[in-house]
Design brief:
Mean pLDDT: 82
Number of helices: 6
Helix content: 25-40%
Order of helices and strands: EEHHEEHHEHEHEEE
Low-confidence stretches: 6-12, 145-150
Number of strands: 9
Distance between the termini: 31 Å
Strand content: 25-35%
Radius of gyration: 19 Å
Largest sheet: 9 strands, mixed
Oligomer: single chain
C-alpha cells in the first residue's frame, strides 16, 4: 500500500448488511471485532499472497519440495503470527485517523447484543483503506467542487494536476471459494461509502500491480479510471508491497473514481 498519511478524524463504524443473491444470508461488513477475526484475516492474507506456488501439472524440483515442506512445518505459522500482530498494531496506531480495516462475513447481526457481526462467523474477505498522496485535479483541490458537464476521464487526466491526500484502497482479498460472488464489490462499496459519507472525500484511488490483470479488470468494472501521464500512458508509481515479513516498493497503476453523490444533503 502507498504510505498512509495520519489524518485525524473522529469516526464510528457500524456493521453494514449487503444482500447478495448467491448467499443464503446477508453479507456483513464491519471492522474486525475479535482476535478470531484478526487470525482469520491473517490466514487469508498469508494463504493468498505468501504461500509457495506449486505447479500441479508438472513435477516439482527438490528445492520446491523442500520449500513447501518448510512452509507447512513452520513458515505458514510464523507468517500468520507476524501478519496478525502487524494488523492489530496498525488498527490501534491509526485509531481516530482516516484509516479503516474491514472484514466480510456471511451471517447476521440480529442475534448480537451490540449489533456487531457474529464472532464465530467465517471471514470471507477483507479490505484495507487509508490516505496517500495522489494526483488530483486542481479544481478539486481549490474549491472542492465538480463540474458534472465534464467527463470523469477528461477531468482526471487533464494537465491541471496537483497532489493531495486521497482515500486509497491498499489491500483487497477474498477467499477463492467466494470470488465472483459479489464479496469484493461489496467491500469496495463499503470503502466508497466511508470515504464519501464519513471522511467527506470526493474521490477514491487504488494502486494495482500491472501484472494483476484480474484486479485491473475488476476495478474498471467498479467504475475506476486509470490516471494518465503527460504522454497519455497509464500513470505508474511505486507502492509498498508486503510479502513474507518484508516490504518492497513495486510499480503500480493508479486508478481513481469520483464518488457519486458527494456533498448531497451537506
Amino acid at each position: 500500500m502507498s504510505p498512509i498519511i495520519a489524518t485525524h478524524i473522529k469516526v464510528s463504524f457500524v456493521a453494514t448488511l449487503f444482500y447478495i443473491p448467491t448467499f443464503a444470508s446477508a453479507l456483513v461488513i464491519a471492522p474486525p471485532s475479535s482476535s478470531a477475526d484478526f487470525w482469520q484475516l491473517a490466514s487469508l492474507l498469508v494463504s493468498t499472497f505468501d504461500a509457495p506456488i506449486v505447479d500441479e501439472f508438472n513435477d516439482t524440483s527438490m528445492q520446491d519440495k523442500m520449500e513447501l515442506l518448510q512452509w507447512n512445518l513452520y513458515g505458514k505459522t510464523l507468517n500468520e503470527e507476524y501478519t496478525y500482530k502487524r494488523y492489530a498494531s496498525t488498527v490501534r496506531r491509526m485509531r481516530g485517523k482516516k484509516y479503516c480495516l474491514l472484514v466480510a462475513k456471511e451471517g447476521s447481526v440480529e442475534d448480537t447484543d451490540d449489533g456487531s457481526p457474529d464472532q464465530r462467523a467465517e471471514v470471507l474477505g477483507m479490505v484495507e483503506m487509508g490516505m496517500s498522496l495522489c494526483p488530483t485535479p486542481l479544481s478539486e483541490i481549490h474549491d472542492g467542487s465538480h463540474d458534472n458537464s465534464h467527463d470523469d476521464a477528461d477531468e482526471y487526466n487533464d494537465n491541471s494536476i496537483g497532489l493531495r491526500p486521497q482515500p486509497t484502497i491498499g489491500v483487497l482479498c477474498v477467499k477463492s471459494l467466494y470470488q465472483k460472488n459479489g464479496v469484493g464489490r461489496a467491500l469496495v462499496q463499503k470503502c466508497e461509502d466511508i470515504a464519501r459519507e464519513m471522511w467527506e472525500e470526493q474521490s477514491i484511488c487504488v494502486d494495482v500491480e500491472p501484472v494483476n490483470t484480474d484486479a485491473l479488470a475488476f476495478f474498471e468494472k467498479c467504475g475506476y479510471i486509470s490516471s494518465l501521464d503527460s504522454d497519455g500512458e497509464r500513470e505508474i508509481r511505486d507502492a509498498t508491497v508486503s510479502r513474507r515479513q518484508s516490504s518492497e516498493a513495486k510499480p503500480h497503476f493508479l486508478l481513481r473514481k469520483r464518488l457519486a453523490g458527494f456533498g448531497e444533503g451537506n
